[in-house]
């Protein structure tokens, strides 16, 4: 079953008098339950592509189908709703809020869906237990290691029970041992039939995925 489909996606940035053509015709189909990686050098357009899949950025031209809806034509409020309900995102530098506990960070995506507080607490606690942080739910980011912070961010992605998890260089800020632990955790999620799109510029990290794609200069190529 196809979860998402990108058809001939082009993304240009318009900077004053200059047009920067960042994505040059991207075609991609992701099946439900797939674990794919997208590799490419810095500046190849990986984050731009991820932000389009995440519905944070709009395309210049092209079609985007998410669970059969043509989402390219929706407005930014509708994009935000889909993003909040269906797409979990894991960032390179975690993007946690400084003065909030792990529990509060993970409860937050549910607040946007008007989930009652008792249920928010219950689901956030479960998500934190799933990433082995049940004993750290009261800790703030500065009271957690880098690997633990990334696990909080994985719990925050999971708590909405998303259709897909996007991870943009999730191990980029971690040492290799901790990075491999995070990748093991992501692999476990895949084994529970979560759909995962991972971006990395490291071969060893891409090797965790079941299908590897290569992006060069805004286009998919056979290898890099
Ligand atoms: N908001 C923007 N405005 C103009 N150019 C941008 C913007 N975002 C990214 N770019 C350009 O698009 C190219 C790809 O960027 P990016 O997608 O961040 O690459 P990657 O994640 O692969 O390193 C780069 O040349 C970058 O300078
Ligand atoms: Mg990037």
- Overall number of domains: 1
User: Per CATH, what is the topology?
Assistant: Rossmann fold
Gyration radius from CA atoms, angstroms: 17 Å
- If helices are DSSP runs of H or I spanning 4 or more residues, what is the number of helices? 7
Q: Report the mean per-residue pLDDT as an integer.
A: 96
Low-confidence residue ranges? none
Strand order of the largest sheet: 6-7-8-3-9-10
The strand count comes to 10
What this model shows, in words?
With 224 residues, this protein is of the alpha/beta class. The protein has one domain (34-58, 75-221): Rossmann fold (3-Layer(aba) Sandwich), CATH 3.40.50. Helices cover 34% and strands 29% of the residues. It is built from seven helices and ten strands. Adenosine-5'-diphosphate is lined by residues 13, 15, 20, 22, 40, 42-48.
Quick structural gist:
The chain is of the alpha/beta class and 224 residues long.
List keywords for this structure.
single chain; 224 residues; alpha/beta; Rossmann fold; six-stranded mixed beta sheet; four-stranded antiparallel beta sheet; 10 strands; globular; binds adenosine-5'-diphosphate; binds magnesium ion
């Amino acid at each position: 079953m196809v979860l998402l489909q990108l058809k001939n996606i082009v993304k240009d940035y318009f900077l004053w008098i200059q047009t920067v053509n960042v994505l040059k015709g991207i075609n991609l189909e992701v099946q439900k339950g797939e674990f794919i990686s997208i590799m490419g050098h810095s500046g190849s357009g990986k984050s731009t592509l991820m932000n389009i899949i995440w519905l944070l950025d709009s395309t210049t031209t092209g079609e985007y189908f998410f669970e059969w809806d043509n989402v390219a034509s929706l407005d930014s409020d509708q994009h935000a709703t889909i993003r909040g309900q269906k797409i979990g995102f894991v960032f390179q530098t975690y993007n946690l809020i400084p003065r909030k506990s792990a529990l509060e960070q993970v409860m937050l995506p549910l607040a946007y869906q008007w989930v009652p507080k008792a249920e928010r607490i219950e689901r956030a606690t479960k998500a934190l237990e799933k990433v082995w942080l049940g004993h750290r739910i009261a800790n703030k980011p500065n009271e957690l290691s880098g690997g633990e912070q990334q696990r909080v961010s994985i719990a925050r992605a999971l708590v909405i029970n998303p259709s897909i998890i996007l991870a943009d260089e999730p191990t980029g800020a971690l040492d290799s041992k901790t990075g491999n632990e995070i990748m093991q955790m992501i692999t476990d999620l895949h084994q529970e039939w979560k759909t995962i799109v991972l971006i990395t510029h490291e071969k060893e990290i891409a090797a965790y995925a079941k299908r590897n794609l290569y992006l060069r200069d805004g286009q998919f190529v056979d290898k890099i």
